[in-house]
Amino acid sequence: MKLNRLFQMTALLAVVFAFTGCDEEFTEVGGEIITNPSNVELREVEVKAYSQKINSVQTNNLPNNVLGVTNNPVYGQGAASIVSQLTLSTEDPDFGDNPVLDSVVLTIPYFSRQSEASTAQEIVYELDSIYGSESFKLSIYETSYFLNDYDPEVGFEQRQKYYSDQQEQVEQNIVGEPLFVEDEFKPSPLPFTTYEINAEGENDTIANAPALRIKLPVDYFQEKILDKAGSSELLNNGNFRNYIRSLLIKAEPNGSGGSQVLLNFADQNSPSRISLYYKRDLEVDGETERVRTRFNLGVGSGSNRFNTFTGEFPEGVSQAIAGQTAEMGAENLYLKAQEGSMAVIELFPDEDELEAIRAEELLVNEANLTFYVNDDLVSGDEPRRLYLYDLNNNRFLFDYGVDISYRGGNPDNSLINFSQPVAEDENGRFYTLRITNHVSGIINEGDDNVKLGLVIVPNINAVAARDQQGNVVGSVMSSVRNTPGPVEQIPSVNSLTPTGTILYGNMADDVDKRLKLKIYYTNYN
């Protein structure tokens, strides 16, 4: 991808759209503006597409993490757990005289919004980014599993990567008994109230949006934290992270349908923390009083944190994926987010056909791929968006970067020229990915005919980083390992949803639903 060309195309599109309001000769084909619609022709070109299992994905570069258990009717049961360091809010803390802990609370915010049922007297919340409505087993452990900032295997010259398949390694280092166990934990949309000491030393009543709220054992933190005041273990965060190396927040199935929720670790207004509430002696006007105080431990804030995923595909799904080949393509494409599966798309697999099309010097008005859902194999809600990227170079496509329908604050309706949300016609449910500029570059400019990766994303805005003006500056990717084939990286946001689907591929028996590349073009020769 040539970035100079990207910025030039952005400016060109702005000019084109500015003129559409005053030129009646412009019309639309599939949302793309073209001229002389009577000369537009359609050509369907064969493609090859096949599924690829993702066995392990890097998860320590995510702004947020998921927690819980899901039961997918196609892909089976899976669990998402979290491993995190703790951080001292104040290094070498002074807890005062005679500090005695009375309660300890872990708080990690959920994503939520106010419900229409809210009134002036009561705010009612609904949880965002929650999948399922039943419970799961939740446990919390201290572990001696140390999380490095930099990778010792390459001389500490690169950031350490942590992967979704490392839960067994973490569990081998569990220290002592669990700090918390709840056999039927269920994320709650209820708000909660806290009492905080303001600048005047008075208690303020604070109403808070829903969050994961767990009471942890007082004796453990009295011994581990308050009783260690003045010690080398609490002198700085480097020492502290070697003292309490990590926590495992573990989700397990409990026989119910389970649920999985996205935790808002990036919330700056309500940071994730363990709050230690304690009383200490304080001299006031010559009298000793017991004063209640709070000390915070940061959870995953400015420190290492990663997701682990457990669960196996049913044997039939695994065999179906293993039986697909790059040479022929596939009847069905299996897409499952997290430690799941994706699809590899090869455009113009017949090199002779591509050269013949190039010789025609066609003006490409629109090119798209339409993926129909195999409703015979899946049912229920579909993932809302799919994302297509350059698999050879692990970066966004030109069409993604120049899509003027970007809406920073509304990802559900953002970039819909490039990736349409799931829709339905007489043939069933489908997704449309427009890759007009990408295909035009291959045909008319000799651009490399790279392989494309197709994945599920919960937020299509988050697959790339943008500057303050909203311009795309780079893809946000995660490495994969133990994964055969051409896949080296996938969009990081793929790990933040457990959803899955099955799409018709290029070998589908139903011709109307078979995957093809559709090119709308004008031939002036």
From TrEMBL:
Residues 1-20 form the signal peptide. Keywords: Signal. It comes from the Bacteria. InterPro entries: DUF4270. This is DUF4270 domain-containing protein. It comes from Christiangramia aestuarii.
